[in-house]
Design goal:
This is B12 binding domain protein. The protein is built from twelve helices and five strands. It is α/β, with parallel strands linked by helices. It has a five-stranded parallel β-sheet with strand order 2-1-3-4-5, with helices on both faces. The longest helix has 21 residues, at 92-112. It is globular.
């Protein structure tokens, strides 16, 4: 995890508020089992982060206080807690690997032991996710390869892959280096993206049936690769436009013309940020 990116305010509260509102609205449009899968995804991804021993290791009481703040009636209590510890000198790594990772573990334990309700854990995980989105600017900008490149993938479980295959071929004709991944499971695709140097990731989905897998993938990628540009293409952009608009994506495209425009803009954004980092 590299966090030598742009300095500035520890947590962008505007991004935090917007991300939480979007995720809350998205969850309100999803079935309960899909909402539960998103909560588990946040807990699993955060709790699996390597927790390194450090002189800055917070006490169990400190982690419990953070959890209570995340579950409180005050929407910004958890964010304020994180802002305070960063002001006191906690690095991004300490926030992620010590505070948020351990808080995710504790929330998971409380949920399994029925100490908190389903509604509470979804609230807490939504706020943790929004905190991470609010800290995105603190991470190092991905180093853009000299040649324009991107990773294209079909959403896990998708069987309609002709469109993304054609898009990959067309972008290659345009001079892009496209790494195409089809038929991978959720875990396989995440592992591949984490291990790659992809600065742009495009996920293709054919329709509303893909929303559960797509939303779960977006949440996981935002945690594992916080500064990778992420866009979605395919018929899902039209068929599930309301849900797609709430995923906090860097771009969407329902046709090849729009996809070319989105890719060009995102590549320029990455290149410009890298040159000024």
């Amino acid at each position: 995890m590299r966090s030598d990116g742009p300095s500035g305010k520890p947590l962008d509260i505007d991004v935090y508020v917007r991300s939480q509102a979007e995720l809350r609205s998205l969850k309100s449009q999803l079935p309960e089992d899909t909402v539960a899968s998103l909560a588990r995804e946040v807990i699993r991804r955060l709790a699996s982060r390597e927790i390194q021993s450090s002189v800055n290791t917070p006490s169990e009481d400190a982690i419990a206080q953070l959890c209570h703040a995340l579950l409180s009636d005050d929407d910004t209590a958890g964010a304020q807690y994180i802002q305070e510890i960063e002001t006191d000198g906690a690095t991004v790594e300490v926030v992620y690997l010590q505070y948020l990772a351990r808080a995710a573990q504790l929330l998971g334990v409380w949920w399994e032991e029925d100490k908190i309700s389903f509604m509470s854990v979804t609230l807490g995980t939504s706020r943790m996710y929004a905190i991470m989105r609010g800290m995105q600017h603190r991470f190092a900008v991905p180093r853009a390869p000299l040649k324009r490149s991107a990773l294209f993938a079909s959403v896990p479980g998708e069987t309609h892959t002709l469109g993304v295959r054609m898009a990959a071929d067309l972008f290659r004709q345009d001079g892009w280096d496209i790494n195409l991944k089809l038929g991978l499971t959720h875990e396989e695709l995440l592992k591949h993206v984490e291990g790659s140097d992809a600065v742009l990731v495009g996920v293709s989905a054919a329709g509303e049936h893909s929303i559960r897998a797509l939303s779960q993938l977006v949440v996981a990628l935002r945690i594992s690769n916080p500064n990778t540009k992420l866009f979605v293409s395919g018929n899902v952009v039209v068929k599930a436009s309301e849900q797609i608009a709430l995923m906090g994506l860097d771009g969407t495209a329902a046709d090849i013309k729009t996809a070319r425009e989105v890719m060009a803009k995102l590549w320029t954004d990455v290149s410009d940020k890298r040159s000024t980092a």
